[in-house]
Design brief:
Elements lengths: L7 E4 L2 E4 L2 E3 L2 E9 L3 H9 L2 H7 E6 L3 E11 L4 E10 L6 E9 L7 E12 L1 H27 L3 E10 L5 E7 L7 H5 L2 E9 L9 E10 L4 E7 L5 E13 L9 E8 L4 E9 L3 E10 L12 H28 L8 E5 L2 E7 L8 H6 L1 E8 L2 E9 L5 E6 L5 E5 L1 E4 L10 E6 L4 E6 L4 E4 L14
Parallel strand pairs: 1-9, 3-9
Antiparallel strand pairs: 2-4, 4-7, 5-8, 6-7, 8-9, 10-11, 10-19, 11-12, 12-13, 13-14, 14-15, 15-18, 16-17, 17-18, 19-20, 20-21, 21-22, 22-23, 23-24, 25-28, 26-27, 27-28
């Protein structure tokens, strides 16, 4: 450094896109600096190529490496834009970082600048939880807008959502005040749910928003559910299964729990709600036949489009987080990911590559099957069959925590429905259950995240 002094030192405004990243990942990044008088002076005397060769950047504290590949001058705004990559090492500590810029031209004094808090390192768990918060906020706004259109106040803090990247997509929300009504009042006919359905071709209903009205007919007879469009027109009336039993405990659970799940044979979407008070617990289930193709051609309203966009954004974040988590736990995870979100948090999961070819004998000998995110951490599952013929699943987290539980494994046989495994996610009243169905008909239902349930410790 000539004369032991820098031509410029101090802070500079900057933009780093993306401005956050997860451990064990490499990102393409765009970094824009300025305006700053020192940058303007250098832009007047250097070419972009010379500026690139003279510039180095670091993030402090460390654990992150920046490689600059190209520089562009923006004369109108007196800014300099760099493109390159940001590599976040596996052992990088989470938290915000300052960007330090050093520009050392061949002639003249060097420039040393700092952009405070320009980039944040996140754990994969933090990224998923932040993405889920954004998703739930965006979906809540869409539900509120549709609720106003339908003349219904919608409770948006406890909606349930499950998605694997392809239809069906379901968002199940409670109409406010319906949860306070006794069972006798519900039997007389009440609008209880607002649902958004993005469905495949051949389903019993077109994609869109529906208000679900429940009633009993005759008064002591069967329960029914009506799917009404936003104009109040009944498009489908279908039986509803309702069970009522005494409350067994006084556990602190939501008065209403909304759930959703599906089954492959026959293809069915199941919309559930569960009511619990001091004396009785009510479990209600509505089955909706669905098709097996791509999304139907029904145009979605703007709120529906917003939900699909938000769902795909959440799925993309889950995919990146699962990939980073797989690196941390050293698992060969597939790219296909499924997610479930409700008031208790988010569960994301995928299968381990090779499961598309695995036989029941391979599982019996022992192999890694599923990678999940739940309880704020990742869990890698290994399935095996013991000498007594009992299926067992051992879950292991990156920090070495481990549990072994009885596993649910079955073989249905029949021709493969898909060359790749199918990911089903069931949101149950007290758990979230990832279910993997392989091309050869092996079904693995994994009830637990770490041996005590995906929701354990979240209530």
């Amino acid at each position: 450094m000539a004369g032991g002094h820098a031509a410029a030192q101090g802070s500079v405004s900057c933009s780093v896109v993306p401005n956050s990243g997860m451990q064990a990942t490499t990102l393409s990044a765009t970094i824009t600096l300025g305006p700053h008088i020192a940058l303007s002076q250098l832009m007047a005397t250097m070419t972009p190529q010379q500026m690139l060769a003279a510039t180095s950047m670091t993030l402090s504290p460390g654990g992150v490496e920046i490689a600059l590949l190209q520089t562009t001058f923006l004369p109108l705004t007196q800014q300099v834009t760099y493109t390159g990559t940001i590599t976040i090492f596996q052992d990088a500590s989470p938290g915000a970082r300052n960007l330090r810029i050093s520009i050392r031209p061949r002639e003249g004094l060097p420039v040393e600048l700092t952009c405070p808090l320009a980039f944040t390192v996140e754990t994969p768990a933090e990224r998923l939880q932040r993405a889920n918060e954004t998703f739930r906020s965006e979906v809540a706004s869409a539900l509120q807008a549709i609720g106003r259109q339908a003349g219904a106040l919608v409770q948006t803090d406890n909606f349930a959502f499950a998605f694997n990247g392809n239809p069906p997509l379901v968002v199940n929300a409670m109409i406010r005040d319906a949860g306070d009504l006794p069972l006798e009042r519900l039997s007389q006919g009440v609008d209880i749910l607002l649902v958004f359905l993005w469905l495949p071709v051949g389903s019993a209903l077109p994609s869109g928003f529906y208000v679900i009205r429940v009633f009993r007919d005759p008064p002591a007879g069967s329960w029914w559910a009506q799917f009404k469009d936003l104009g109040g027109r009944i498009l489908l009336q279908t039986p509803m299964e309702v069970s009522v039993r005494p409350t067994e405990d006084e556990a602190q659970k939501p008065r209403y729990q909304l759930t959703a799940k599906g089954k492959l044979i026959p293809p069915t979407l199941i919309i559930d709600w569960h009511k619990k008070d001091r004396t009785v617990q009510v479990d209600a289930q509505i089955e909706l036949p669905i098709g097996t193709g791509g999304a139907d051609a029904m145009p979605l309203p703007s709120a529906g489009q917003a939900i699909v966009r938000a769902a795909n954004t959440l799925l993309s974040a889950a995919r990146d987080a699962i990939a980073a988590g797989a690196t941390l736990i050293r698992a060969d995870a597939a790219w296909t990911v499924a997610v479930a979100s409700d008031q208790d948090g988010i569960v994301a999961w995928t299968y381990i590559n090779g499961m598309e070819r695995a036989s029941i004998e391979d599982l019996a000998r022992g192999r890694e099957t599923i990678l999940t995110f739940g309880l704020g951490k990742f869990w890698l599952y290994r399935i095996r069959r013991d000498e007594n013929g009992q299926w067992l699943a051992t879950s292991r987290s990156p920090d070495g925590e481990s549990y072994t539980q009885v596993a649910e494994v079955s073989l249905s046989g029949g021709p493969p429905a898909s060359p790749l495994p199918t990911l089903l996610t069931s949101i149950e009243p007290d758990d979230v259950s990832p279910t993997l169905v392989t091309p050869v008909g092996i079904t693995i239902k994994q009830k637990d995240c770490g041996g005590c349930g995906c929701r354990c410790g979240q209530k």
